[in-house]
Amino acid sequence: SLAATGELVALAAGTGDAVPAFNVITLEHVEAVITGAESAGAPVILQVSENAVKFRYGRLLPLARAATAAAEQASVPVALHLDHVQSDDLLRQTPDAGFSSVMYDASRLPYAENLAATRAAADWAHAQGLWIEAELGEVGGKNGRPPLDAHAPAARTDPAEARAFVADSGVDALAVAIGSVHAMTTRTAALDHDLLGRLTAALDVPLVLHGSSGLPDAELTAAVTGGITKVNVGTALNLAMTSAIKEFLTAHPEAVDSRKYLTVAREAMAEAVARIIGVLRAR
Ligand code: G3H
Ligand code: ZN
């Protein structure tokens, strides 16, 4: 059934759990995330990033409508979220696309500009009844850029600054930079748990972890225990998809019907989704 991101996040926050949010690019991603969540019997967030919209010729609606229909027919609650939005034009398409929430990303800007842009986005989003997430500090590795040094202080979220940022912008949730990096293909990232503890103590909004594909299982579990309420995963699905397709086409070089390799790709993604949900629950 179609759910609202704010409701799923609030439910998770109430029980000390985290909602997984998976980035979807194709219809096969959408189907795999829902199948994986159904097999685990867990609610899930489907998120479409601004980069995914760019890949879809700049159009949000075709994938958004497919995702909405799939969510409505799912046996578990599924919420739809627009991820890493920098464009005001795309931001304004959020409600018409059937999404209940958006992550507005001005984290590349200096503090004052990030705050001003985020506050304007939050005012607009709340007037539409949308839940809004923003980012302070910068989780590196976006848009194929080389990752920032995850240990550089500039790349981390400062707790006092974060407290002021949330109060002054009015956002509903905050993406924090605590050592994870986007687009990692190995599970080798190490989080700054001391910083997460200080952020959790300083803030009363749910905290969001980006770049979660790069975390070892124990780090993911510790992040949830430490106060992360929304866990964003993208690359892990692409890794599963691409590996499955490579393996299939190597074993079956004569294959022509795209359904053959998309079937194994979808199964591999669904397994990855169910596995990650299992890790989030195992506490
Ligand atoms: O917003 C999306 C996530 O941060 C995904 O990051 O692709 O490294 O898992 P990831
Ligand atoms: Zn992200």
Automatic annotation (TrEMBL):
<dbReference type="InterPro" id="IPR050246">
    <property type="entry name" value="Class_II_FBP_aldolase"/>
</dbReference>
<keyword id="KW-0862">Zinc</keyword>
<dbReference type="InterPro" id="IPR000771">
    <property type="entry name" value="FBA_II"/>
</dbReference>
<dbReference type="GO" id="GO:0016832">
    <property type="term" value="F:aldehyde-lyase activity"/>
</dbReference>
<dbReference type="GO" id="GO:0008270">
    <property type="term" value="F:zinc ion binding"/>
</dbReference>
<feature type="binding site">
    <location>
        <position position="210"/>
    </location>
    <ligand>
        <name>Zn(2+) 1</name>
    </ligand>
</feature>
<feature type="binding site">
    <location>
        <position position="182"/>
    </location>
    <ligand>
        <name>Zn(2+) 1</name>
    </ligand>
</feature>
<dbReference type="GO" id="GO:0005975">
    <property type="term" value="P:carbohydrate metabolic process"/>
</dbReference>
<dbReference type="Pfam" id="PF01116">
    <property type="entry name" value="F_bP_aldolase"/>
</dbReference>
<feature type="binding site">
    <location>
        <position position="105"/>
    </location>
    <ligand>
        <name>Zn(2+) 2</name>
    </ligand>
</feature>
<feature type="active site" description="Proton donor">
    <location>
        <position position="83"/>
    </location>
</feature>
<feature type="binding site">
    <location>
        <position position="84"/>
    </location>
    <ligand>
        <name>Zn(2+) 1</name>
    </ligand>
</feature>
<protein>
    <submittedName>
        <fullName>Class II fructose-bisphosphate aldolase family protein</fullName>
    </submittedName>
</protein>
<keyword id="KW-0479">Metal-binding</keyword>
<feature type="binding site">
    <location>
        <position position="135"/>
    </location>
    <ligand>
        <name>Zn(2+) 2</name>
    </ligand>
</feature>
<dbReference type="InterPro" id="IPR013785">
    <property type="entry name" value="Aldolase_TIM"/>
</dbReference>
